[in-house]
Design brief:
Structural class: mainly alpha
Low-confidence stretches: 404-409
Shape: elongated
Distance between the termini: 84 Å
Order of helices and strands: HEEHHHHHHHHHHHHHHHHEEEE
Number of strands: 6
Radius of gyration: 42 Å
Number of helices: 17
Length: 409
C-alpha cells in the first residue's frame, strides 16, 4: 500500500513539474482557417491536445466495455454455474464415501444439470446408483463410461464390482480382464482376478496375476503380506500338482514344488508331494534329506512317520535320530516335537525314553493344527479354500489363536 501511494505521489509531482515547465516556455500558436484566425499560447495548445487525446481514449474504452458487457455477464453466469456444479460434485462424492445414497443421487442429478463434464458426473451417478442398490442404473452408467477412452478403466472396474455383488463370476472375470488390459499393473483388477482364477482352480492364470499384486505391495510397503505369501506358495504347489496329475509334466511339477518350498520351506503339502515324487523316482536319499530338514523346521507326525519308515533302523536308533532333529527354538515348535517323539517312543515300547521326553514336554501348550487366518476355524487337513469361509490359502499349520470349533471334513 505504501509503495502504491509513493508511486502516485511521484507521478503527480512529475506531472506538475512538466506542466510548470510547459507554462514557462515562451511562444504563441496562430491558426488561420476559412477566414478565421486564432491565436493562443503554445502551452495551452499542447494542453488541449493532451485533453482531447484523453477524452478520445476514455470514449474508446467506454465503447469497448459496452460491447463486451454481454460476454462478461455470460462469463460470470457460467462461472457461478460451474462453481455450483463442482460443489454438487464434491458433495456427491462425499455422500458416496459416507454411504448416503439419497444425498448422493440428489447431488449427482444436480451436477449433471450444471456441469458439462459427462465423465465426472457419469461416474458419480454410477456410484450413487450402485450405493442405492439400483444395479440396472449403475450398469448403464458404468457401461457408458467404457465408451470413453479416459474413463473406460473405471467403467470396467465398476462393472466388475457389480458382477461380483451379483455373484456372476463370468461377467466379473470378463470385466476384470478388460480392466487389466487397459492398465496392466492394476492391483485392483489383478486382486479380483486372483480370487476368480483360484475359485475356478486355474492355478497358472492365478500365478500370473498374483505377481502383479506382490510387485505392487513390495513397491508400496517394502514387504509382502503373510496371506499373499501363503497364496503364492499354495498356487505354486497346486500348479505343480495339476501338472503332475493332468499333464504328467514331471519337470514342471518338480519345479513348482521346489519353488513353493523356496517361498515357504515349512509348507507341509509341498513337502509331502515332493517326498512322494522323490520316492516314486527312486530318490530315497533326496526324500530323507528333505524330510529331515522339514522336521527341524516344522515338526509333524506325518514327517516323523515317513522318516522312521525310510531310515529302516531299529526303534531305539530311529527315536534317537528324531531327537537330534528337534528344533531348539521357537519353544512352541520344540514342545510340539517332544510331544511327537514321545508318542512314537510309546508306540515302539520305549517307555523309559517316552517318560523322559514327556518330562520335557509342556502338556498345557495347545497342539498345532490347520487354522484359518480369517475366520479362525480349525480343520483336520489342508484345503486350497477354507471349508468354513471360502478364503483361498487361508489355512495355516499353527497353534490355535483362540478357542474355535474343530470342523469335520
Amino acid at each position: 500500500m505504501f509503495v502504491r501511494l509513493l508511486s502516485l505521489f511521484i507521478l503527480i509531482m512529475l506531472a506538475a513539474s512538466a506542466a510548470s515547465w510547459l507554462m514557462a516556455q515562451p511562444g504563441n500558436l496562430s491558426i488561420e482557417w476559412l477566414g478565421w484566425q486564432m491565436e493562443m499560447p503554445s502551452s495551452l495548445a499542447v494542453t488541449l491536445v493532451v485533453v482531447f487525446a484523453l477524452i478520445f481514449v476514455f470514449f474508446d474504452r467506454l465503447q469497448r466495455a459496452l460491447r463486451s458487457m454481454p460476454g462478461w455477464l455470460g462469463g460470470r453466469w457460467r462461472e457461478r454455474r460451474d462453481t455450483a456444479g463442482h460443489r454438487a460434485l464434491t458433495l456427491g462424492l462425499m455422500a458416496v464415501s459416507a454411504g448416503e445414497p439419497v444425498e448422493a443421487r440428489k447431488q449427482a442429478a444436480r451436477a449433471r444439470r450444471l456441469l458439462n463434464a459427462p465423465q465426472l458426473t457419469g461416474l458419480l451417478s454410477a456410484q450413487a446408483a450402485h450405493l442405492a442398490g439400483d444395479h440396472a442404473a449403475a450398469r448403464r452408467y458404468f457401461t457408458a463410461l467404457t465408451d470413453d477412452q479416459d474413463t473406460a478403466f473405471l467403467g470396467q472396474i465398476g462393472l466388475m464390482r457389480l458382477a461380483v455383488d451379483a455373484k456372476d463370476s463370468p461377467a466379473a472375470m470378463m470385466a476384470a480382464r478388460k480392466a487389466l488390459n487397459l492398465k496392466p499393473q492394476s492391483t485392483l483388477a489383478a486382486t479380483q482376478l486372483l480370487q476368480l482364477h483360484a475359485d475356478q482352480q486355474n492355478w497358472t492364470a492365478a500365478l500370473d496375476v498374483i505377481a502383479i499384486v506382490i510387485k505392487d505391495r513390495k513397491k508400496q510397503t517394502g514387504t509382502v503380506p503373510e496371506l499373499l505369501s501363503r497364496q503364492r506358495t499354495a498356487l505354486l504347489y497346486l500348479d505343480g500338482l495339476a501338472a503332475l496329475e493332468t499333464e504328467e509334466d514331471t519337470a514342471r511339477a518338480t519345479g513348482q514344488f521346489l519353488a513353493a518350498l523356496r517361498n515357504d520351506p515349512a509348507f507341509l503339502p509341498a513337502i509331502f508331494a515332493l517326498t512322494d515324487f522323490y520316492l516314486k523316482n527312486d530318490s530315497k536319499r533326496k526324500a530323507i534329506k528333505l524330510l529331515e530338514t522339514s522336521f527341524a523346521l516344522l515338526p509333524h507326525t506325518g514327517i516323523a512317520d515317513r522318516l522312521l519308515a525310510l531310515w529302516d533302523d531299529n526303534d531305539g536308533n530311529s527315536i534317537a535320530r528324531l531327537i537330534k532333529l528337534i528344533p531348539k527354538k521357537p519353544v512352541p515348535l520344540q514342545q510340539a516335537a517332544y510331544h511327537i517323539v514321545s508318542d512314537m517312543a510309546v508306540s515302539k515300547g520305549l517307555d523309559g525314553e517316552a517318560k523322559r521326553l514327556r518330562a520335557l514336554h509342556d502338556a498345557s501348550m495347545a497342539a498345532f493344527g490347520w487354522q484359518c487366518g480369517v475366520c479362525k476355524s480349525r480343520h483336520d487337513s489342508w484345503h486350497s479354500h477354507c471349508p468354513a469361509c471360502g478364503q483361498f490359502a487361508g489355512l495355516k499349520w499353527q497353534q490355535p489363536e483362540k478357542v474355535t470349533p474343530l470342523l469335520g471334513e
